[in-house]
Amino acid sequence: MVDRGASALSLPDDWPAHPDPILALNRMGSFDWDLDTGLMSMDAQAHEAFDVSPDEYDGRPETLAVRVPPGEARRLDALVAQAIKDGSENYGAYFRIRCRDGELRWTHTQGYIRRDDSGRPRRIVGIVRDATSELDEFAAHRQQAFLDEARREQTNVVQLTTAALAHARTVQDVIDVLKDTHGLVHLGAASLVMGLVEAGRIRLIAEGPAGSFVPGTQVTRIDEPYPMSEVVRTLSPRFIESPAEFAADYPILWPHLTDLHITSAAYLPLIVQASPIGAMGLLYNDRRGFTPEERNILVALGSSIAQSLQRAMFYEEEKDIAQGLQQAMLPRTIPSLPGADVAVRYRAGSAGGVLGRDIGGDWYDLIPLPGGRVGAVIGDVQGHDTHAAAVMGQLRIVLRAYAAEGHTPATVMARASVFLHELDTDRFATCLYAEADLSTGVVQVVRAGHIDLLVRAADGSCRRVAVAGGLPLGLSAEFGSLEYPVATVELDPGDTLLLTTDGLVEQPGADLDDGMLALAAFVAAGPDDVRALADRLIEVAEERGGDDDVALLLLRRRPLDTPRSGGRLQQHVAPGDAEALTQARHMIRAAVRAWGARERADEIELVADELITNALMHTEGAAIVTLRVLNGADRRLRVDVEDSSSALPRRREAGVQGVSGRGLLLVDLLTDVWGVEARGGGKCVWCEFVVAPRP
Questions:
Q1: Is the pLDDT of residue 300 over 60?
Q2: Residues β-bridged to residue 688
Q3: Is 215 in contact with 208 (CB distance < 8 Å)?
Q4: Which residue among 219, 248, 567, 660 is the one 20 to 30 A from 168 at the CA level?
Q5: Exposed, middle or buried, 593 (CB in 10 Å: 0-12/13-18/19+)?
Q6: Is 55 helix (H, G, I), strand (E, B) or coil?
C-alpha cells in the first residue's frame, strides 16, 4: 500500500539533530539513509519496528531482506526509485514484514529526500512504525461499512418490493412484481419458483426464467422430497449454500437444475396467521452461502410477499363471487329473433382494488312478446356492490313478468317503480324500455331517468332520440309521479337501436350531451355488424377504464322474407293526454303502411280515431288501442279499443245541425265487420278491415 502526497513526511530544515525522544513518544523509529555510501542508520525504535536486534543489522538496507518478503521489497524499492527519479520530495508506503515468529505484520514508512543544489539526491531521512493495529482498525471499519451498505441495499430491496407489491391486486400481479419489476433484478437471483398450497398439495404458479421448469413439479405433494414441500411442512426457511449440499439433500430435483449453474438457493415458506399458503424459492448462480443479515432480510421479504399474496387471493376470490353473482343476475341467453340481429355486452367497472366493488347494478334484457313483438330493456341500479346486483336481479325479473303479461310500456315502467319502492331497499334505478314490432318497425319507448337511446340508420348515420321521461324507478312511486310518456320511433329495415348505460357515455369533467354526441359519432363510424360494433364499443370502455359498469344492447331490424302473421301493437291513451293521442295516431299510420294496407290507411286511421275519441269522451278512464294482423282465409287488420266502462255504445240519430251521433254510422260504413265484447269491468269495441296481401 502506498501513502503519498499530503500524508507523506515533510521534514523542515530545523529538524532536530536528536529526534529520538520525540519519535519514541509516538512509537515511531527513525532512519537516515546516505545514498552516496548506501548505508542506512536506524534508531532503537526502528530496529523494533523491523523486529531486528542491533547486532543483526550491519547498516546495509539489504540486510533487512530477512524481514521484508521479496515481493514487498521489490514494491518498496520501486516506489523509492520512482520518487527519486521524478523529483519528489517525499514518499510513503505500507508494506509487510515477516517477524521472527513467522507472523506477517503491517509496517508504515515515510521518507524525505534531501538533494544538493544541483538536484541530485544525497540523503533520505524518515520514520518507520508498526501499522498492524491501524490497518486492523481500518479493515474492521471498511468491513463494517461494507456490511452497513449491504444491509442498506437489502433493506432497500425489501422496501422497493413491498412498495411494488402494495399495488398488486391479483396473484399474477404479485408474480410480475417478483419476476419482472423489482424481483429477480434487485434480489440478485437467477431464477424464481413459487407455489400455492391447495388441498394438501403445492401447485406451481411461477417459474423463471424460461426453460427452467422441472418436469413433474407442476403439482407436488407436501410430503415429497422437494425443498418447497419441506418449508411448507416445517414452516421454516431452507438455505442451501452449495451445489454439493443441493445435490446431497435433493437428489431428485438437482439433476434438472445443473444447466442453470445454481450455486445456492433460499426457499421460504409463505405464512399467514401461522398457516402456510405457499412457498417461494430464489436460486442463485453467483454466490455461495448467506450471512445472518441476508437470511433475516429474505425471511422478512417472504413475510411481505405472503401478505400480498393472500390479499391478492382474497381479491380474486371476491371478484369471482361478484362476477358469478353478476352473471347469474343477467340473462343466461338472449333469444334468437327472426326479424333482428341482437348483440349484448357487459363490462364490470374497476373500483381500484376495493373488494366487493367489481360488481354493479347495470343490466340488459330482451323479452320475446306475443304477436312478433320484442321488449328491449337497459337499466342501472344505484350502487356498486352485491346489494345493487341483488336488487337488479329482482327488478329485471319483475320487468320481464310485467311485459310478458301484456301491459303497455308505460304500465310496465310504472309497476316496476312501485315494486322497487315497496322493496326493502333504499336504492333507485334508471331504466329504458323499448317495445318493438319487428314486422312494422314501430318502437314504443318509455324512459325512467335513463339516458336516451341512439338509432343508427341503414346509411350509417346515427342520431339521438330524445324521449320525455319520468322519474327513476323507486323515486317516481315515492313522490307519487307514475306518469311515463310513451314515444314512438320507426325502425326501418337495416336500422339499429342502441341502448346503453351511462358508463359508456359519462367521463369525469365532461358534459353528458357532449358524451352522447361523441358516442353517436363513434357508432356512425363503426362496423355495420352489431356484434362487431358491440365489441368496438366495449373496447373503448376498457381503454377508458373507470369504476362504472357498462351494459349494452344493440338490436338491428332485418328485412323480413315473408309477411309476418300476428303482428300486434298497443298504445295506452290517458284522458286529456293530447300527446298520447297523437302518438297513437302515429303508431296506427306507421303500422298500416308497414303491414301493406296503404290503400285503406285513411279509413283505418279515421275509424280508430273515432273509437278512441268515443272511449275518452263517454268513459271516465283511459283507452287502450291495439292493432294486430289476422291471417286466415283473407288477411285482416283488426283494431281493438278497450275502456273501463261496461256501458255499450249505441247508435243515435244525428240532427241536421248536430256535431255528434255519426260515429257508429261511420264505423259501420267504413269497416268490413265490427262489434263489442265485454271485458270484465269494461268492454272492447273492435273492428276489422280486409286488406290486400303485402306485395
A1: yes
A2: 638, 673
A3: no
A4: 219
A5: middle
A6: helix
Instruction: Identify the band that residue 155 occupies on the pLDDT scale cut at 50, 70 and 90.
Output: low
DSSP state of 505: T
Place of cell 498492524: 132
377-426 confidence digits (pLDDT tens): 999 988 877 788 888 888 999 999 998 887 889 889 999 999 998 887 88
Percent of the chain with pLDDT over 70: 82
Set of cell numbers at residue 70: 521479496
Burial classification of residue 321, based on how many CB atoms lie within 10 Å of its CB (0-12 exposed, 13-18 middle, 19 or more buried)? middle
- The distance between the two most distant Cα atoms of the chain, rounded to a whole number of Å, is 165
Q: How many helices (H) and strands (E) does the chain have?
A: 17, 26
Residues 675 and 40: their CA atoms lie apart, in Å, by 146
Task: Give a three-class secondary structure readout of 507-546.
Answer: CCCCCHHHHHHHHHHHHHHCCCCHHHHHHHHHHHHHHHCC
Distance (Å, whole) CA 623 – CA 581: 10
Region of residue 407 (phi > 0: left; psi between -120 and 50: alpha; otherwise: beta)? beta
Tell which residue, 565, 557, 639, has the closest CA to residue 601: 639
Three-state SS for 82-149 is: HHHHCCCCEEEEEEEEECCCCCEEEEEEEEEEEECCCCCEEEEEEEEEECHHHHHHHHHHHHHHHHHH
Torsions phi, psi for 492 (to 5 deg): -75, 160
Sorted by sequence, the CB contacts under 8 Å of residue 293 that are 6+ apart come out as 147, 150, 151, 154
d(CA 551, CA 405): 25
C-beta of residue 628 within 8 angstroms of C-beta of residue 594? no
Cα 296 from chain centre = 33
Q: What are phi and psi for residue 347, nearest 5 degrees? A: -125, 125
* Burial (CB count <10 Å: 0-12, 13-18, 19+), residue 316: middle
* Residue pointed to by grid coordinates 329504458: 432
Residue 137 has pLDDT above 50, yes or no: yes
Residue type, position 484, single letter: Y
CA distance 398 to 390: 13
Alpha carbon distance 175, 194 (integer Å): 8
φ, ψ of residue 555 in degrees (nearest 5): -135, 115
The band of 581, judged by pLDDT with boundaries at 50, 70 and 90, is: confident
Out of 67-81, 140-154, 650-664, least confident range? 650-664
Main-chain phi, psi angles of 606, to 5 degrees: -65, -45
Q: Tell me the pLDDT tens digit for each residue of 486-519.
A: 888 888 889 999 999 988 888 766 788 888 999 9
Model confidence, pTM: 0.52
At 22-36, the pLDDT tens digits run: 455 456 899 999 999
Nearest to 355 by CA among 305, 316, 381, 383: 316
Closest CA to 329 of 359, 302, 299, 285: 359
**pLDDT: is 206 or 459 the higher one?**
459
- Write the pLDDT tens digit of every residue in 552-570: 999 999 875 544 444 677 7
Distance CA 54, CA 240 (A): 56
Residue 497 near residue 436, CB atoms below 8 Å: yes
Q: Going along 161-229, which residue ranges are E strands? A: 191-198, 201-208, 219-221
Amino acid, single-letter form, for residue 123:
R
The set of residues, in sequence order, having a beta carbon less than 8 Å from that of 231 and lying 6+ positions away, is: 237, 238, 267, 268, 269, 276, 279
Alpha-carbon gap, residue 113 to 90, rounded angstroms: 6
Q: Hey, CA dihedral for 446, 504, 462, 496, is it positive or negative? A: negative
